[in-house]
Amino acid sequence: MRRISIFGATGSIGQSTIDLIDRDRESYEVEVLTGGRNIDQLAKDARRLNAKLAVTADETRLDDLRTALAGSGVEVAAGRIALTEAASRPVDWFMSAIVGAAGLEPGLRALEQGAVLALANKESMVCAGGLMLRTAKAHNTRILPVDSEHSAVFQALLGEDITSVEKVTITASGGAFRDWPIEDLVKATPQQAATHPNWDMGQRITIDSASMFNKALELIETKEFFDLKPSQVETVVHPESMIHALVGYRDGAYLAHMGAPDMRHAIGYALHYPERRDLPVARMDLVALGQLTFRKPCEIRWPALRQAREVMEAGGLMGAVFNAAKERALDAFIDERILFPQMAEVVDTVLTRLSAQAGHNTAEITLDKVAEADHLARQSADAVIAENT
Ligand code: NAD
Ligand code: MG
To answer: Is the distance from the beta carbon of residue 297 to the nearest atom of ligand 1 less than 6 Å?
Structure first.
């Protein structure tokens, strides 16, 4: 029996994780499931999987959760502190699938109690990559990437020496507006941006795919996770989303990872690592596919890619600043307070304003410093948004 916890269980990655667990119920003992406002889903899964504890991040929903789980024997809790405490409960495997910087602290606590961390929450690596890796090492455990591109890179690196890697290329579908005329992007609505051509994901990451903020985060995540130089990571637009990443070696060989776009592959790989087990993902039909295509990403359409390079070069806390500014700009776009292209403008202004503040690109990363940089960047982004509306 493996003891597991799933943080962000009600989200897209959380539900796919539960789908895999459900197929082999006898092998797992579920310690903690967490969610946000979707109390019905959280309670339903906690009952069905016989979880020991269910936590909602929303403090105001504790009573609702208690009512929904009455008589089930599942403990309940609510709020950020309860979430962090729940992450410290010992388990063998921990899925980090909260969206945003809110996923960082629970993931760190999970590493501190020695769990293997399946990391979907890319923001953890963007805000505090070095701290995450150091914590894993100090507690004699490991982080397994669940982002599809990073799982792909991880698999293409197996048995290889990282020093023989020349370049890592992660692919990008291009998102909802890949083929829109650039001048039309000012008219893009949140609903249009939240429709992905290939992947079925949460609302926020889907909009981030259209703006390529998601790919920008993933470039930084790649650099941090595999300890590469900024010049060694790049992205290419690949509309079919069949190749997820390629690792280019010094002898001219490229090892590419391919597969149908279904997150259950990367989740299942992290769940069964180092074994490969049967997974319910579609098999590839190369002949039906016919061809795979690639395009150079345009940095006028997707300024987030330029910003990612700037952030990687700056290092330090600029990843946390970038992510926080992006989260606030995304909130403002979802609320229709700013236009689609203004998200990148807000982030540019915050990066300029905060990089000038001493220490942001040199500071040693601690959780407190990340929290402070995150807070300052959110304040700065809100001010920029207010100036623009
Ligand atoms: P989602 O929006 O579908 O789900 C997010 C989960 O986090 C939900 O359970 C929600 O209740 C919870 N949550 C939201 N805000 C919270 C907060 N402040 N505190 C605590 N919990 C909170 O998101 P998702 O698409 O499943 O993505 C989850 C993470 O995985 C993100 O970091 C995303 O970038 C990453 N990821 C997702 C996919 C995908 O296919 N969906 C692929 C790769 C990486
Ligand atoms: Mg990804």
So the answer is: no
